[in-house]
Amino acid sequence: MDQAASSRPRDGVNPGAAPSGGPGAAWTVLGLETSCDETAAAVVRLDEDGRATVLSSVVHSQTDEHSPFGGVVPEIAARSHVEKIGEVARRAVAEAGVGMGGLTGVAATAGPGLVGGVMVGLSFGKAVALARNLPLVAVNHLEGHAVSARLTEDAPYPFLLLLVSGGHCQLMEVRGVGDMTRLGATIDDAAGEAFDKIAKALDLGYPGGPALERLAATGDGSKIALPRALLGRDGCDFSFSGLKTAAARLAAECRTDQDRADLAAAVQSAIARQLSERSERAMRDYAERHQHLLFVVAGGVAANGEVRRVLTETATRHGFRFLAPPLAYCTDNAAMIALAGAERLALGLASDIDAVARPRWPLDEATAAAQPLHLKAGRKGPKA
Ligand code: KG4
Ligand code: ZN
To answer: Partners of 58 in the beta sheet?
Structure first.
């Protein structure tokens, strides 16, 4: 894609507003995201009352550069981020209408992700922070996804979060900024990774999730039985590798376009069903400890219509309000990084200017250390 996609400022904002910042004040934060294959920058304003307004959000996707290789090539990604970050950030500031002087903070993804790319956005953010004398926040990309519904919706803490992306699949109890407990996670592949790899086996190209969803629309999933991993098993962990292997084998046996569509529909509904079954367990557990029941789904896979439909139905059945961000904020973007940074700045949680890029960075470090997930080397997705 040559042209960076962008969204215009939302109604009701005051682009000429004076700069703000400081304890209890409003924040206007430049967010930067370069952890995988999107070069993104955004400006978000967080008011004193906690209301967020996206002033601009620019995303340059590298899809065209990676698709000949069937997946993200780290070296190509890093070089492309270097080439694009300046232009994308300039556009985000220009479209926000506040000028550089209107910014009161900078937030950049510092991990987890492809470290060469993470370093590009983080270094750029440090340069802006130093040049403009602004506080810097080194943001965990997953914390960005966790707050993404708060960009446009009334999603007060605490809530139960299902984070489903290309590199992650986890259920979290989110009590506040940086205050989260992992209730479950995938023991092998992430849901998005399963979508992508099965799409590849069906020759749907990269990225596979949206292509598989389009193909599934013309298929009948009930014709094919796929393995149901961890069914009835205690806990809230996920597993998608058995499904992936079975689906790849069936893909090789497909004779007609209809066979392929039926397989795509069966895969999509199997993934949605597992997400629902495991979330249901987390809902029961969460409801024992909380009065206000809010279920938030975030990450690229939350863009899938069938996943949303099944999870909405499950949440409603268990008395939870269901929320998922608009599609543009499900997949990687910098508005969510700007908001995660603004929420930290509002609590006085700026980072040191020598913050490092981290290829791995669990959201709930305590649980991750106590119950490591045994992943074989090299099996994690590009965004893990
Ligand atoms: O959140 P994201 O943009 O990047 C990270 O992993 O952090 O998620 C990308 C993932 C990819 O695996 C992609 O195939 C999947 O989200 N995805 C979808 C859909 N849109 C994106 N999967 C299924 N259906 C979709 N419509
Ligand atoms: Zn992501």
So the answer is: 6, 41
- Can you tell me the distance from the alpha carbon of 66 to that of 301, in angstroms, rounded to the nearest whole number? 20
Which of 331, 333, 363 to probe ligand 1 with, by most ligand atoms within 8 A of CB? 331
**Statement: residue 270 has pLDDT above 50:** yes
d(CA 45, CA 20): 9
Residue located nearest, by CA, to atom 13 of ligand 1? 209
The reported pTM is: 0.90
pLDDT in tens, 58-91: 999 998 999 888 888 999 999 999 999 999 999 9
Binding pocket residue ranges, ligand 1, CB within 6 Å: 36, 165-167, 192, 195-196, 207-210, 213, 299-301, 303-304, 331-332, 383
Structural domains in the chain, CATH included, are 3-153+329-361 (3.30.420.40), 159-324 (3.30.420.40)
Rounded to whole angstroms, how far apart are CA atoms 286 and 240? 24
Residues sharing a CB contact under 8 Å with residue 209, sequence separation 6 or more, in sequence order = 166, 192, 195, 196, 199, 300, 301, 303, 304
CA distance 99 to 324: 31
Cα(198) to centroid(ligand 2), Å = 20
346-368 burial code (b ≥16 CB/10 A, e <16):
beeebbeeebebbeebbbbeebb
User: Tokens representing 80?
Assistant: 């492309």
Distance between CA atoms of 94 and 330, rounded to whole angstroms?
A: 24
Rounded to whole angstroms, how far apart are CA atoms 318 and 177? 26
- Cα–ligand 1 centroid distance for 107 (angstroms): 23
**Nearest-angstrom CA–CA distance, 63 and 77:** 10
DSSP for 93-154 reads HHHHTS-GGG--EEEEEEESS-HHHHHHHHHHHHHHHHHHT--EEEEEHHHHHHHGGGGTS-
For residue 16, the CA-to-ligand 2 centroid distance in Å is: 31
